[in-house]
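Sequence in, structure out.
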Amino acid sequence: MKKNIIVTLVLGTVLTVAFTACERDIKATDDNRPAIVSKSFVEEFDDFNTLGARGWVFINNSEPVGSQGWRQGKYEVRFDSKNGQVVDGFPAYSSQKSQNDFVSADLNCGFDVSTLNAWLITPVVPIKNGDELSFYTRCRGDFPDRLQVRANLTTGTANVGALSSDVGDFTTTWLDINPGLTLSGYPTTWTKYTITVAGLPTNTTVSSRIAFRYFVPTGGPAGANSDMVGVDLVEFKSK
């Protein structure tokens, strides 16, 4: 099965994005030890190449692995002699320099038919009960996609194991978007998700890393699942 990843624009119509189609709130629970005081941050992913120097980590444990993992957002409008004006990807939710100002992961995380397991991991974030993590995400929508938000609340490392089924120290699942891998289970317009931290010991903070895991079994260019997801405007609020 070969996937067509090009979307044709009818009569040259400009692709538009619906802002915040819906907002969903999730409670996250787990136990851990005290750490230091929490700090707030906002990440808009305007330049993917600067993220590593600021503590972000990218790991692609897909099997078999493909040509790329998480990357700068993909959005390109071009002319094709056969199809006319076409668009690759989709534009950012929040853009400062270009419509590519977000991060994305797609079927090319794997090769042929594969289990996709690509990680986008934050710098160390001290958290406590009541803190909030919010972000916007959407998919392209031609094939089923899936995204998890996981936390390492024990070691503060970026250890995710080595296999496509591994989660390493990221044993806490805060959110799982479209675990049933249905075509309608992932939003196709930018949608805001808000996670409120709960369940930690009272009056303590935990030195943590938070991960966005693109996890799609039977994915890849020849698989029945996986297309493209984007993440934009990640905000952590220390309460």
